[in-house]
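Good morning C.,

I know you're traveling, so I'll keep this short. The sequence:
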Amino acid sequence: MSTSALLRKIKLQEAATEQKIINFYDEATEDYLYWSKSHNMHFGYYIPFKNTFLKRDTMINEMNKQVFKRLSFSKKNSLIIDLGCGIGGTMNYGLLKYPYTSIVGATLSQRQVELGNQFLKDKNGVIIEADFRDLPIKSSSSDGAYAIESFCHVGHSNAALAEAYRILKPGASLVIADAFLRKEPEELCSVSYYCYEQLCKGWSVQGLRSIYDLKNALYKTGFSEVKIENISWKVAPSVLHVPFAILGFILKKLIKKENIKSQSWSNLKGSLFALLSGLHFTDFGYYIITAKK
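The tokens, ready to paste straight into the viewer:
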């Protein structure tokens, strides 16, 4: 890696320290509540004639469905771990669909713990304040784990993959739904890299790993049967909603003469560059990855 590439990587890591990630979610949670009535904090999965690109939550909950379908767990007495759960939107979906399953979610944000546990009250789920790279969960105790747009905050690090592997029972699956690079960062053209850099800064993301590097890392961690699905075109309709949703949120705030947090402006900036990054389909992609322990 060249000196300039190393310096750029260090700058991205500094833009996504643990405290900055906590601040991001503490301040951005209100924005995401506007994004999804079902309290989800991720993009959607569009299927023509099954859901509509005009209604975000139909696509967002379809993403939840696709992730749970790939976990392949027993529908009774199973323990599933949400690695970066937000305020529990995906957990709520899973608990409603699989009422005899228990789900534990992990987040660094105390605010999300409070809001999420209130949202999940009287369900078989709980949100804990914990780093998904160091969980207070016994080894080989979980029947499945998933990470939806959360591992990117730590650059899809080997530590995150190793901890997921540790907590899973033999034969259980990890499902990751997230954006990835289709080449190494230093191989991006100047325009793609600028969009990538601004996306990371706006959303407190440490970096997007290349999908090929991630595949190798999963096998090195010990996972087997790694399946990679490029779903970029299925996610694209929901990505188109992002700038308009955040602009709508900001206009609503202005009309009510309420203060707009700095993170809301950062979200807007990040979302615009996420949209621009998506146009560079040879450099970026959105994937669902399934790996078995």
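Safe travels,
E.
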